[in-house]
Amino acid sequence: MATPISPLEGFEYPSNMIKKYISNLEIFTIMLVDGRIVHHIASDAEAFKNWLVVNNIPDVRILELCK
């Protein structure tokens, strides 16, 4: 299991490089802190989303609802 900052297996970026994300089923669109956008197809979408949540990475959909 990945530690909070380390990358999750199959995903090359550690959590401290991620600014926010949005997902649709197993496809995640991720904005990195340097402004780049990357896409990730998770083999286990629930585990990947949980890793993002544990690392306090904001979901764009929730950010929009809070406006």
Could you characterize the architecture of this molecule?
The chain is α+β, with helices and mostly antiparallel strands. The chain has one domain. 24% of the residues lie in helices and 27% in strands. The chain contains 2 helices and 3 strands; from the N terminus they run βββαα. A 3-stranded antiparallel beta sheet has the order 1-2-3, with no helix packed on it. Strand 2 and strand 3 (37-41) form a beta hairpin. It is globular. The N and C termini lie far apart (34 Å). The mean pLDDT is 87.
SSE map:
Layout: E1 18-24, E2 27-32, E3 37-41, H1 45-54, H2 60-65
Antiparallel strand pairs: 1-2, 2-3
Q: What key attributes describe this structure?
A:
67 residues; alpha+beta; 3-stranded antiparallel β-sheet; 2 helices
The number of domains is 1
User: Would you report the number of β strands?
Assistant: 3
Percentage of residues assigned to helices:
10-25%
Determine the number of helices (DSSP H or I, runs of at least 4 residues): 2
Measure the end-to-end span.
34 Å
- Rg is 11 Å
What is the molecular shape?
globular
Task: Give the spatial strand order of the biggest sheet.
Answer: 1-2-3
At a glance:
The protein has 67 residues and is α+β, with helices and mostly antiparallel strands. The protein has helices at residues 45-54, 60-65, and strands spanning 18-24, 27-32, 37-41. The protein has one domain (19-65).
